[in-house]
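Thread: Newbie trying to understand structure tokens

Hi all, I'm a second-year student working on a class project, and my supervisor (Dr. K.) asked me to get a predicted structure for one chain before our next meeting. I've only ever worked with sequences, so writing a 3D structure as a token string is new to me. If someone could post the tokens and maybe explain what I'm looking at, I'd be very grateful. Here's the chain:
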Amino acid sequence: MDRRPTMADIASRAGVSRMAVSYALNGRPGVSEELRERILAIAAELGFNASAPARELRGAVVQAAGLTMRRPSATAFNVEVFRRELISGIQSVLMGRGFGLALQSVADVEDELAVYRRWSSERRVAGILVCDLETDDPRPAALEALDLPAVIIGGPLPCSPLPSIWSDDGRAVTEAVAYLAALGHRRIVHVSGPGHLLHSQVRAAAYETACAAAGVEPVVLAADYTGEGGAQVTRRLLSTARPPTAIVYDNDVMAVAGLGVAMEMGVAVPGRLSIVAGDDSALCQVVRPDLTVLKRDIVGYGAHAAQLLLDVIDGGSPGAVLDHAAELVVRGSTAPARP
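---
Reply by user tm_fold:
Sure, no problem. This is what the structure looks like when written as tokens:
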């Protein structure tokens, strides 16, 4: 070999990932003793000789997990409960293993892929957590090509071997629609997140199926998870000749904004309009009336995702793991439909 051998060369010869080579060379758990000895033998055969500073650098940079966010708005992050609690749960588990969290804001998918490539080439992270899957999402395939351990939060993806953790969003939406239909509501609108997100599509499909079962005509309007987006959609709905008697919002921020618009327009909640929020938060509990919600343990969800990623980094293959689904918690914002 004319050039200095690299860990990629060892990985190619051994038929394993670069991460496995790193574990073997640095004496870390995650590979069997038989594989460790084989990798060390190949390294010696190729003349691989890492300097002490390089070994220290490799030992440091892999003690972090990577997570990108394509919602750069500071206001949205400070208010929206899902992201904040998800990250809290992730960090609680990573800290227990001495791992940090590399959190990067990105503008779009190309920016995100560039971050993945940089993290891989600079060995900044030991693995990646992937959120907000899209239709024809290129990220899983890119991570496979980079040989980076990864766990998808949401899914599972039938076309990708990457492990995933997911919650049955469809079941939660079905429960909300069935509850509203039992209260006599026949004009139930679903205000979803952005339509290109797979979990928005899953929820919308479940809503339409539940509406068909209840004899309700389905109406889905996409928004952007922000208060402004939720307010605009609600104002438009309540200005129609036949406004809905119930609205199911995909998150807490849009639901609280929708409640504010209803109050502004003189639409009594729950007298003339029932509201269900897709996440629970302090916002949902301090407004009046307090909001009926689809509640789940988001901190626990993040912690579970982080533990799965650590398992993958250690050489495990957890597959697709189903987490707890959200449960309907009835509060003051829902009531029987008026005749």
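A couple of things are worth pointing out once you decode it. The radius of gyration is 24 Å. The chain has three domains: 7-60, 63-167+298-322, 169-296. Feel free to ask follow-ups in this thread.
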